[in-house]
Amino acid sequence: MIGGTGQPMNLQRVALASVMLVFLGLLNFTNAQENPNFDEVSIRVLPVRDNIYMLVGLGGNITVQVGENGVLVVDTQFAPLSEKIKATINDLAQSTSRYIIINTHVHLDHVGGNEALAQWAREHTGTAPQIIAHENVLVRVTAPPDENIPETQISPTAWPNAPYLTGFKDLYFNGEPIEILHQPEAHTDGDSMVFFRSSDVVSTGDIFTPGNYPVIDIARGGSVQGIINALNRLLRITVVEAFQEGGTKVIPGHGRLCEEADVVEYRNMITIIRDRVQNLINRGMSLQEVKNTRPTLDYDTEYGSDTGFWTTDMFIEAVYRSLSE
Amino acid sequence: MRRYVIFTNGLLVLSACLLIPGMSTLAQSDLTGFWVGLYHEDAPERLPGPQFGDYLELPLNEAGRMRADSYDPNRISAVQEFQCRPHGGDYSMRGLSVPLRIWEEYDPNTQQLIAVRTRTAWMEMERTIYMDGRAHPPEYAHHTWQGFSTGVWEGNMLSVTTTHLKPSYLRRNGVPRSAKATFTDHWVRHGNYLTVTTFIDDPVFLTEPLVRSSNWVFEPTMKMSPYSCEPATEMFVPEGTVPHYLPGQNPFNSEFSDLFGLPFEATRGGAETLYPEYRQEMGEIPTPPQCWRYCICTGLFNCPERPSPSPSTNGRTLE
Question: Is the ipTM here above 0.90?
Fold first, then answer.
């Protein structure tokens, strides 16, 4: 693969960064910690609407829907937090007769608790819970074990056992229709958004992370255009109540609870950055030359970071490579 | 005699204890009722709207300046979600606020004040200023246009702290204000006049707090009508279009400095330009031969964009 510099692209570096990012699972966007102490992490509950809650701990946000059918969980954060997550869900649950787990993508800060929650569900119900994810998530976790690819280390009991192969999957649970929508080539190649139609709540996974640049995991099939497409699709789903406020609630992969206006700002940001980098690529600039122009300067103080596992530098590089392919 | 002194002193202390809470209440002002905004301050910016490239009086950092430079006003038409967007809480007192209604809400059981509430007609902007000592929500709670406000009385001044704002603007020409910003209001009533002084802290776009004030006059006969707004297709553009200028390609950046004969650098904002010492750096500024825009702008209906044909009225000569 040849980039704008005429030099071979350093995909190894991007891949390594992605592996580090997933393996260490330290995507704590609000307070990057080198060595998180899971004992000190508490699981906080934010009621979103009706019987839907947002759980905030370390790693990706968890969405929990409870009702007479049982418990539906979107993403499961890190394995070491599972006991606390289970206790929190237990407090919220109205019925534990059935469990469903949906994974928005393959990263360990979103699927790390699958195994423990699945085991817990088996103890309650006698059967394994449904674990739903896009087929591409299953493909990645079932690949031959590779110590450099953390998702291949996941136990088979934590694998998606109800993958969907098409663009969407519907289900009806706890009295409301739920749409699981695949968004190709966005954060990864296996992203799903989960739309709770009656409650009017969308759980987005990491295609939307307010306050931080999106992680574009090129090694796992992500792309900047895919993220923009996903955000535009999300904006088609969201409906405001009045004066650009209220209406559909959006639970992001990381960060605060949001609404349509927040998604618009985020979509605008990444669309503008895409246009800037594309313009520089069209002018024949190399990656380093693009970085030297500081094309994200006006967004860095809001979304960027010089440290941690997803720096501004890595973001620009991912956008550049994504547009150069 | 000694017993009498002790008794008298005790009475005085008791009286003081009884009076102090009452005095505290008496020191507060009654802000409730209808108010009409006064726009003599910064009228051209607040009524017809700011010029492109006018960042005067704003302690912007490099990021804020670049973000503003990239703004294309077509965005508020092309991005339909922006069409019915209200002002942010920090700007809602600056824009068209005719009228402003203020009222108080009390707990029906305890008759304790829960909140001071405000509403302005345009986009039905409502603020709730909690007065019951409650804490602000956690950071991961959702943000709103008006934010989450708590207030305390400091003598006759109501001081309000606001967090949890949606991203918005400091000025309507694309100067941004982030969701990480917070602001403090100080509300003071002087007879029939109300002054609100706002201190905005934005670690994303400002290097120091932005301070500005707005004024109202009491007008108890005002009425407030409902307001409606529905987005519509104002431009035929592909889905996801976000109008903007690439860095260095905004042709309108110098329009403001050219029109008013100001040094371009002075119009770019920044903390150093806010203080009187900066006049020394500006040097001698040649006076434009004639004012061409907003020359007598003092109020809502007195802010013509162009001077009238008679130079003796709107198009007054500056010399």
Answer: no
